[in-house]
Each structure stands twice: as C-alpha cells, then as structure tokens.
Amino acid sequence: MTSNESQFDYNDRYGIKPSRSWLKFAIGFALVGGIWIVWAGLHHAQPTVRSELISFTTQDPRKPIIRYFVERNNADDVIICTLTARDYEKNVVGQIDDIIKAGESFVERSTVIPTRADAVNAGIAGCRVL
C-alpha cells in the first residue's frame, strides 16, 4: 500500500452501510419529550390556586398569627389552606386547616394558629380546592 491509499475496509468493499435505526427512536423521544416539557410549563404556569405568605408574628409564642393571601382562578371554588407553626428545632407544634369560602378571587387573611409548644415561625403547608 502506498501512503496515498486509505486503509482497507471490508464495509466499503462489500457495500455495507452503517445502520442508523437509533435515529428514529431519538427523534421520536425528543419530539415526545419536547411536547411534554411545553405542556408541563404551560400547565404549571397558571395554577388553579396560588398562595403566598405575607408575614407572621410570634408575640405570643403559643398563638402565632399568620398573614397570607390566596389567589384562585375560579371565585366559586372553596379553598382549604393548611397552616403550620414550627418550633426552634423545626418540629410542627401547631397545624390548622383554614377554609376560605367562595367569593372573591383574591383573598387576604390573618389567622391564629394554636400550638402545643412555643412557636418561632409559621407558614403555609399548601392550599387546595375542596
């Protein structure tokens, strides 16, 4: 062989072309995955219920007051928000379900959470449609 000739290859000699069957699966997987990512992003960008903590006060450690707001897409929905109070070691020392009746789509509330021990903070565990 001279230096100008390429190395001998049986695939070239017998006309065997490399298989690309994986390409169909890769394109299908990418297409389905892309559609799912777009759907998930749009679906979770507009939740049915949105809640946010405004503030909490623990002047009386056995009765912390939490101030929060809830925004719902449908004003006719009844919402249940689970509110928690925690101690210094992050143990839950108080928890209540605050029911928000149908009415306005934006509601701001102040609620007292009774506790079994001294609380240092309070928060919203979650809100859901009843």
Written description of the protein model:
The protein has 130 residues and is α+β, with helices and mostly antiparallel strands. The protein is elongated. It contains 2 helices and 6 strands; from the N terminus they run H-H-E-E-E-E-E-E. The longest helix is centred in the first third of the chain and has 24 residues, at 22-45. Strand 1 (49-57) and strand 2 form a beta hairpin. It has a 3-stranded antiparallel β-sheet with strand order 1-2-5, with no helix packed on it. The model has no long low-confidence stretch (mean pLDDT 89). It folds into 2 domains: 10-45; 49-129, Immunoglobulin-like (Sandwich).
The computed structural class is: alpha+beta
Q: Provide the succession of SSEs.
A: HHEEEEEE
The CATH architecture classification of the largest domain is: Sandwich
Unreliably modeled segments: none
Strand order of the largest sheet: 1-2-5
Could you name the CATH topology of the largest domain?
Immunoglobulin-like
Q: Helical stretch count? A: 2
The major sheet is characterized as:
3 strands, antiparallel
Task: Report helical residue fraction.
Answer: 10-25%
Number of strands: 6
Distance between the termini: 81 Å
Tally of structural domains: 2
Percent of residues in beta strands: 35-45%
Q: Look at the structure and give the mean pLDDT.
A: 89
Radius of gyration: 30 Å
> Tell me, what is the CATH class of the largest domain?
Mainly Beta
Shape: elongated
Keywords: Membrane, Transmembrane, Transmembrane helix
